[in-house]
Amino acid sequence: MSSRPEHVESIELHDTDDIGSNPSANPHIETLIAKRISRRQVLSGSLALAAGGFLGGSLVPLETWAQSGPRVRLGFKEVPASSDDTLVVPEGYTAQVLAPWGTPIFPGAPRFAEDASNSAADQEKQVGFNHDGMQFFPMPRLCSNRGLLVMNHEYTDANMIYSAEQGGRITPDAAGREKVAKALAAHGVTVVAVRHCGNGKWEIIKHDPHNRRITGNTPVAFSGPVSIDHPMLKSTITPSPRGTLNNCSCGKTPWGTYLTGEENWNAYFGTDDFSWSATALEARYGVSYSGFGYYWHRAEARFDLSQNRNELNRFGWVVEIDPFKPKSTPVKRTALGRFKHEGATCMEHKGRVAVYMGDDENGEYLYRFVSAKPWKEHLANGESPLDHGTLYVARFHDEGTGEWLPLVHGVGPLTTANGWQDQADVLIRTRMAADAVGATRLHRPEWVAGDARTGDLYVTLSNGAGNNAAVNSGRASNPYGHIVRFHEDEHSDTAFNWEVFLLAGDPIYDPAVPMGQTVFGSPDGIMVDGSGIVWILTDVSNGSLNMPMRGFDNIGNNAMLAALPDTREVRRFLTGPRGCEITGVTMTPDQRTLFVNIQHPGESTTYWNEQYGPPSTANPSAVSSWPFGRRPRSATVVIRKKDGGKIGQ
Ligand code: FEO
Ligand code: CA
Ligand code: CA
User: Fold this and answer.
1) If you measure from the C-alpha of residue 43 to the centroid of ligand 3, how many angstroms do you get, rounded to a whole number?
2) Residue 458: pLDDT band by 50, 70, 90 thresholds?
3) What pLDDT digit, counting tens, does each position of 483-522 carry?
4) CB crowding 144-153: b at 16 or more within 10 Å, else e
5) Does the Cβ of 262 fall within 6 Å of ligand 1?
6) Atom 1 in ligand 1: which residue has the minimum CA distance?
7) Edge-to-edge, what's the strand order for the sheet holding 457-461?
8) In angstroms, what is the span from residue 319 Cα to ligand 3's centroid?
9) Which residues of 350-436 form beta strands (DSSP E)?
10) pLDDT of 413-440, one tens digit each?
11) Residue 8 pLDDT > 70, yes or no?
12) pTM for this one?
């Protein structure tokens, strides 16, 4: 092993996911949007539209969308944009902090230590760090007062999870191994029973037998075309597969299980062996010497690329968890493809399940999996509907139409003659298979939400702020992001229609954004509630948040907004504390309780760092002290209307 120069060890960076690693010349949706707008200008004779060069929400015919169901209207007063270190909800609403990072969820579990001195073993019995995608599972069915809250924990921040005495660096010794163990224990998924205890307040049921932590160390199984015995997954260092990492967004299956997406898993791997270099496959997934600067490989050979590179291929999957069976093994469902999975949104048509999935990196694709048969038939046969079906990738046409292209071995270019061995090979190299069939590149496809009433689907394209010219297709960067709406007559059809539903941003800085539209940036989370309100959660990166020089001063801290599917009115519903993103969101069946996650309050944020200095293990509260005026902690917030009414209406 040869040595190489020390990196600048800025630990726990996260916002590198917008740089991109797609070298293909596949079409980019921004080019298609530009073509659509110029055609529309010719048809309408309007020159006014040319200024933006972009298809804004108000330019699209409304009549083809959102026809079904009663019209819903927003019934709350918008909250202003905020740069304060607090959480704000509209007048007439209450917000309660529930299940912050470190909350003990088992009888006798250790209490959260304010100085971050909890051990790895303690953390395994406490709620994880950086809450993300989340689902409420009523218990019993359709109950709105009791259920299981299942949530992801995306990544950890060394400035927050280690004490001042420990410091943030990972060292190649027992102390370093303990630190990696604590980080692994803070990742994964929390299952926790909760109940409404009256007066609008909710509480954790600590003695509930369903309570569970799934971490980066929990034994997992593989199912579908890719087996754990595949030559590209075998490992002598870690013979049995363990763990799920960078759990971003999620999904809920019609049969009552939870799906979690493994997003920036490449972040955790690295090596100090300078003779290592990435294969084409590894480069296509953004694997590098230093990952995102976690340096876990220095303490754990499991994450050292030169010693255990097959471990990489065990990540990038959708993992199925049955929250009602606390002893069940989480299963990696390989038929759903391997990429940087954001979420896995399930829709149903004629009994078949369709799962919609974004690959969140600049220039990546949108995917859909459809089960071969009705899911009840699969289950009756003793097989998973997620192991039998077809994976597709989206190609957008500039007419506002699109098609789902199958990623099936032997179909189109994915033949043995072209070097594709079998379906397992297609799935391990999903991104490259999608390149080969000519999928359309997108600006960071994040969550997908479906409207159960209309079948309309919404995908957030967070932003195109990356600096990779090849990925950006030569077009000026798209710093604020937008939301694309698409529709299939049936969720198993290969044809779809699409349009831009909303263009995010601030019209002061970007004339393409409709004047008067509520300002917001980087749409990421999205959910359509049972009444059709489109809830949008934002994740402006911490390099841009609040920065006048980047056009984000009026947008303020990250926020949650509500939009109407027909008029496209957008109203700001909630603003978060400093440095956070707003993410995971779910509702009770009666729509009278909303759970939303506040992730990474107080994370290193350029704008606030310049005023207060960056957060560190010695000063974790430099940017934020939300929610309790002390060390910042990700948390779920329970939102209720004081009059007990439906949220947002
Ligand atoms: Fe984990 Fe793409 O947000
Ligand atoms: Ca996200
Ligand atoms: Ca994000």
Assistant:
1) 37
2) very high
3) 999 999 988 889 999 999 999 999 888 888 889 999 999 9
4) ebbbbbbbbb
5) no
6) 248
7) 345-349, 352-358, 366-371, 389-396, 401-406, 495-503, 482-487, 457-461, 445-450
8) 19
9) 352-358, 362-364, 366-371, 389-396, 401-406
10) 999 999 999 999 999 999 999 999 999 9
11) no
12) 0.93
- Tell me, using a 6 A CB cutoff, whether residue 320 lines ligand 1: no
Q: Which two tokens stand for residue 452?
A: 């159960």
- Angle 98-99-104 (CA atoms, 0-180°, nearest 5)? 140
* CA 387 to ligand 3 center in whole angstroms: 28
What is the predicted pLDDT for the residue at 48? 31
Please indicate whether residue 364, judged by its CB atom, sits closer than 6 Å to ligand 1.
no
Q: Please give the distance, rounded to the nearest whole angstrom, from the Cα atom of residue 525 to the centre of ligand 2.
A: 6
Q: Read off the pLDDT of each residue in 533-548 and give the average, rounded to a whole number.
A: 96
Q: State whether the beta carbon of 248 lies less than 6 angstroms from ligand 1.
A: yes
The pLDDT tens digits of the residues spanning 77-104 come to 999 999 999 999 999 999 999 999 999 9
In degrees and rounded to multiples of 5, residue 33 shows phi and psi of -65, -40
Which residue type is seen at 416?
Answer: T
- Output the CA 360–ligand 1 centroid distance in Å: 6
Q: Is 360 in the pocket of ligand 1 (CB under 6 A)?
A: yes
* Residue 51 per-residue DSSP state: G
Ligand 1: nearest atom to the Cα of 444? 2
